Amino acid sequence: MAHKRSLSTVQAALRTLAYLAEHPEGVEVKEVARLLGKSLSTAYALLNSLVEEGFAVKGGRGYRLGSAKPVPPEPAPLEEALEELYLRTRERCYLVLLTPEGVRLKTRGRQGQPHPLGETFPPEWHALALGKVLLAFGAFPLPPLTPKTPYTLTDPLALEEELKRVRASGLAVEMEEYALGISGLAVPLLDAEGRLLGALGVKVPARRFPFAFGRLARALSEIAQIPPHLKAEDPPPPPPPSEARVEVRPVLPPKTLAQKANLQDYQEAYAASLKDPEAFWGGFAREFLWEKPWRAVADPEGRRWFLGGTTNAALNALDRHLPEKAQQVALLALDGEGHLEKWTYKELWEASRRLAGLLKGLGVQKGDRVALYLPTGAEAALALLALARLGAVHVALPVGLGPEALRERLIQTGAKLLIAADGHYRRGRLIPLRPVVEAALKGLGIPVLWHTRGTTEFLERALEGKALEAEPLPAHHPLFLLHTSGSTGRPKGVVHGHGGYMVGVAWALRYLFDLKPGEVFHTTADLFWVVGHSFGLYAPLFLGGTSLLVEDTPDHPSPAAFYERLARLGVDVLLTSPTVLRALRRHGETRPTALRLVGSVGEALAPEVWRWARERLAWPLDNWWQTELGAPALATPLTLPAKPGFVGVPLPGVEARVVDPRGQILPPGEKGHLVLVRAGPAQMVDLLGGKDPWQGGLYWTGDLAVMDEEGYFRILGRTDEVIKVGEARLGTAEVEAAALTHPQVAEAAAIGIPGEEGEEIAVFVVPRKEVPEELKPLLAEKLKGHLLRYLGPVRPPKIFFAESLPRTRSGKILRRLLKARLLGLDPGDTSGMEVEDVPGETA
Amino acid sequence: MSLEKLLKTEERLWAPESLRQQANLRDFAAEYRRSLEDPEGFWGTWARRFYWEKPFAKVYEWNLPEHRWFLGGTTNAVYNALERNVERGLRHKVALLYLSEDGQEQKLTYGELLDRVRRLATGLKALGVGKGDRVVIYMPLTLEGVLAMLATAYLGAIHSVVYAGLGVSALRERILDAQAKLLIAGDVGFRRGKGVDLRSIAEEALRDLPLKVVWFQRAYKAELPEGHYDFEELLWSHPPEARAEMVEAEHPLFILYTSGSTGKPKGVVHVHGGYMVGTTYHLRTFFDAKDEDLFWATSDIGWIVGHSYIVYAPLLEGITSVLREGAPDHPDPGAFWQVVERYRVNVMFTAPTAVRMFMKYGPEWPKKHDLSSLRLIAVAGEPLNPEALRWAYQHLADGGRRGFVADNWWQTELGGPTLGTPLVLPAKPGFAGVALPGVEAEVVDEEGRPVPPGQGGLLVLKRPFPHMMRTVWGNRERYLQYWREVPGGVYAAGDVASQDEEGYFSVLGRADDVLNVAGHRIGTADVESALVSHPAVAEAAVIGIPDPLKGEAIKAFVVLRAGHAPSEELKESLIQHVRRELGPIATPQEVVFLDKLPKTRSGKILRRLLKAKELGLDPGDLSTLEE
């Protein structure tokens, strides 16, 4: 393969030399520029290369003809190619030469002459486009796959996939894999026999990359004489046989964490909880205040708990701690305006018992349902505690719910009173709520107790109430009603009681989330979700801990603020959702915090996100439960090895199985319905509307799962969203987790769509960074190959690109909406949908 | 003076039975006996509750007037107040509850306080502050004022807080005497809704002194010259890296200036070890503080009460301490009670002058509020007159059905309560109380002979205790004087007192030329020199006259220089001049122009005579009078 300096450059050089010969007194750069009609920097570059080659010398007044005879030097075609590339692209260009002395790197940029950059590559050279070219075409050993940026490929399989693609297309693309903010392209330089001589590359700021990509790729391929190869013409390589599928390697928790874990022996606790629930749960429950002790810890089916016992959740959340924790901070409340309030146990107790008195004065009685439409904050916490104190049932409705949905829920629950805020903060903006509430209430005759934002009226009013002692209540007396988030259809009202719920959530916080005395717990879930109820408010208070409540979204005003907040307020244990983790991972940069553990709940936690959290945040603690269950049911306790992708094992009190649709137990490794035989003390006491999940003695979770030989469960998605491709039945989470292992994927949603032969997989992908239009087909091909490697021999999935995914307000992906949009169907009830969502754009 | 009548009082005001039952110290007599019989075991046991990097080898070594405690031990009082408490699980307990005059609250937990102290200490270290360096703090009552104290002591440096109500010359004098390396000053204080300019006072006091200054700028962020730094910037620009400097038990913790009868204020020196041990002992046993109490000392960090019972003792014990900036009767006379009700204050420590002020406003103000949380009201600073005690007992302690009023007497030099009425003993109107554990007090005549019960004499202390001052900064001689004033190697408190048969002491007033205005000790000499520094004044004499609110008020007698004539304007100008020099607390209430002052033959001004005339008393022996 010949590499000639293009005529234009040679001509320019000849003309310059002729001009220098005419002007022995010396020539300035600008004269040359004028002569050639090129820019100063071009002239400067040309002159410098002439000087380097001995044709010209630099003297007192500019450049003169070199003393050396203008004999053509040894041709250095590869270096000429570098020069040519620079002259065509005007970007920073690189040349890698494979010399007997080793790898040599030359660079050429705007600032003048080429200079060697160094003899060797950095340790993460597999992240460089140039490095990928060398790995794809040369016989180099694989370097250690250490990450350099969040986008660095570190999975050997993913890298092999990438190299295969480089081989096929002759072009390597680096998207911020080596340095954040920098992207690059590279091509191999091959001799006539196809042996690798070196590589040619160019890099640009990532923000310009989408626009520059086409131009650069053309220039590179033309100079390297490699035809443009932007579309993989051949189908992706056949998927490897399924035994080559990525195996799950258990990861041991850090010793220091495991050794200090509150739950030292999971197996023993688990066995004890099933064998002798009386002793196991009874022993723990005795730490709480009971007006009257229970007759039996549970009924034989384990559905009703602490029979005959009377207690009160508010009494145990507050009064119980006053003797030794009156001045300890119970709640840290950060409102949308950025004000941080600290509430001590004594203050919370005082204010909530007076608010209870006020509510009683307003006619609220034991057993009455009171609806709340309040953003996360101290006022909401006070209202919940005051209602619990009275024995009234709190019904927290998600702030942001539209007037129709709000009205429907108010009617359905028969609310006696509504406690509402007139506004809430979202991304720093105060969004008025009064019009929504007023529209929803029209003609209902439900009185409203307003919390006017920006004033202390609500608190002042609360403090006017006559302090009320906690009402002793039967253990199963309803504490709250919550609507399930509606990711799958019409909302149901789940009712939880005082006694069992208290024992269950407190146990989980101490023994699963491992909260120690004096630690700060924070959940990013809003107070009006079950996670907020259980772990934002009740469990931390039951244990006498400190809970941080934040009104606005976690990453507002920036992800940096999130880390800063955790560090400044000394948060020890975080409970968040995969959505939040993915958003943080997408942002990339992290900052140090004092986090010890990060719990994840709400959806399946993909292994890639698990690994990211492990490296960047803290030890991840995946856990699975539902509104109906009140507290975690499956999880990986701290002392067990974690298997990324697997949520873990059943927790004490819980018996879980994978069964076929008729309830027959399936062997390990087979996909099926996840059911519970026993569900622990925190399970619901009642259900309003909807089908009872308990059928035939089993609790049907509606999730598709698989259990491995060691009893670890992996959640694969909802059973009603299973994708049947050919013989295979794939869970949505399964496909999504595979997609997330690709470094370019920030979020993914998988659905099944009707195809020519049965169902096909469609994957909606939100790329981590903007992908140039030209690159999308390429990336789609990359992703298809990538997915097939994980999913085994199925028909290649369809890839759609989107800027965001529709999700419920609690952060779950609304797959049925994606499907409806794609197929032009009716999306059904979308009242639970996040308002900000924009419909996905497809490619 | 109806001393006899006073001492024959049969009146006994008891704390409610339930309070006595739950008192931290129930058997006072036994405890007192043990404290004197076995000081080693008594103080040693208490001291071992704290962290000592190197345990002390010996509890005490007395060689009076020298006395040293916890010899061989190394520790740090701030480490004990912060790290120790954070480590024993109080990270998220509220350490300081700050209330501004307009009711804004701010809470700092032990964890946060430690973080900030470490940051500020790192910043101070960067400015060159190290072990033994003096840092003068001229700050309003704010969290930042407390931070400045703690960060300084954390580094083993010595803080000297100057009350932000003192004026230019008082501040300058203290900076010079302490040879301070750094000044941490506020720009403005708030009282009665108005800003008090501190910046110009500090700037003037600093004139020509090569001192680095850290400004706590609340009003506005000024452009700062070189060597001047912004407090918040210094705090937040440094990581919480600094670690507590472990110092010998006898290493000075702070210098606190107090007025004496002679010209110069005395820099009373307290040390890490003994001060920590002694002040906390009394917090628990005398103030009866429980772990979960809200403790509110209404003083200012500029005074010893603030040092001991706003800052050090409560923090050392892991108790929540309230600090509130502003006047007790602003925005209304119920302001204090509003705080008590809102925050459920359990123990309050205030001054007789405040009690008299509440008395003046009437019982309807406390009655408007729910004071059910208030268990103990301790009062100190000057003698609490019987009416005020009875009133407080009646209206603040619900006539003894809910709480107790505990009078106590001590001084800057003594660090903590010395005489007082513990919860388990009855209060007697007119009496401060009995000698507290560790204290051996006596009333003697000028020769050091004990006087019989019921007779007046000089109050002396016959043995030292851990939290008693170690020396006067830069003036050993002045320290020794305390012990030489009265023969017998005893500490002369400078107060006149009497003792009854039951061992109760009644403190009657100062024996020297020191005024006690609203609980603040003001040297007559200070006011006189301030007056003389006015160009119109040739000579001046100052006396204290009884004041129903402040206890004592200042009256000045002035002889003008030739060419100046008495006038109302001049009077006002003199008052303003003193105010500027010494601060508002030393403002003379009255100024009288005289042709000459009564003097002794040796030329000493006879204030006694002026006072006797003023009060219509017998001036006593005038044999030394010039004319």
Automatic annotation (TrEMBL), chain A:
PANTHER family from the UniProt entry: ACETYL-COENZYME A SYNTHETASE (PTHR24095), ACETYL-COENZYME A SYNTHETASE 1 (PTHR24095:SF14)
Protein name: acetate--CoA ligase
Domain HTH iclR-type: 7-67
UniProt record similarity statement: Belongs to the ATP-dependent AMP-binding enzyme family.
Location of the IclR-ED domain: 31-236
Annotated keywords: Acetylation, ATP-binding, Ligase, Nucleotide-binding, Transcription, Transcription regulation
One Pfam short name: AMP-binding
Domain of life from the UniProt record: Bacteria
Top enzyme class: ligase
EC number: 6.2.1.1
UniProtKB/TrEMBL annotation, chain B:
The AMP-dependent synthetase/ligase domain, residue ranges: 83-472
Keyword list, A-Z: Acetylation, ATP-binding, Ligase, Nucleotide-binding
InterPro entries: ACAS_N, AMP-bd_C, AMP-bd_C_sf, AMP-binding_CS, AMP-dep_synth/lig_dom, ANL_N_sf
MF terms (GO), sorted A to Z: acetate-CoA ligase activity
Name used for this protein in its record: acetate--CoA ligase
EC number: 6.2.1.1
Domain Acetyl-coenzyme A synthetase N-terminal: 30-81
Membrane-spanning parts: none
Chain ranges of the AMP-binding enzyme C-terminal domain: 527-604
Highest taxon, organism lineage: Bacteria
Pfam family, one: ACAS_N
Keyword Chloroplast listed: no
Similarity comment: family membership: Belongs to the ATP-dependent AMP-binding enzyme family.
